[in-house]
Amino acid sequence: NTSMLSYILFSCLLLSVQAQDCSVHEIIRHTKRLLERNSLSCPCRETAVSSCSCLPIAEPGHELACFVEGTKHMLRSNTSSSAIIARLNLAFQMQLDRNLCESLARGDQCQYKTKGNVKEFLNKILRTYQAINK
Q1: Cβ neighbours of 51 (radius 10 Å)
Q2: Domain spanning 21-133 has what CATH number?
Q3: Phi, psi (5° rounding) for residue 132?
Q4: Where are the domains of the chain?
Q5: What is the pLDDT of residues 76-108, one digit of tens each?
Q6: 115 phi/psi in degrees, rounded to 5
Q7: How far apart are CA 82 and CA 106, in angstroms?
Q8: Is the pLDDT of residue 66 over 90?
Q9: Helices in the chain by DSSP H: which ranges?
Q10: pTM recorded for the entire structure
């Protein structure tokens, strides 16, 4: 029983360290703030001329690269919340460069099958970091 308790405590410690390296709480807070401000959920149409951004919805293991790419695109689109987006972009870039949050970065290339609008993209970020936080 003592060894099992030690194992559980060690596992909890590792998870909390991973969550800390991933800036989980900060990213969740910023993403929620952006979702509150971006209530617009226009349809993403890559072929049609549209003011709606089409951002990559990452495949598992490629989230960080896609989050970097998507937030860069959002910064170029000159959205009103650019200071928050810049902070998120910097956090994702640091995690990718320093190989933090290993489960989110199996490479530095963004791989995705679909694209979504800003709201879908932000919800993907939120769900990803909430899963780490559990």
Answers
A1: 7
A2: 1.20.1250
A3: -70, -35
A4: 21-133
A5: 876 677 889 999 999 999 888 888 887 788 778
A6: -120, 155
A7: 28
A8: yes
A9: 2-21, 24-37, 63-76, 82-97, 118-133
A10: 0.79
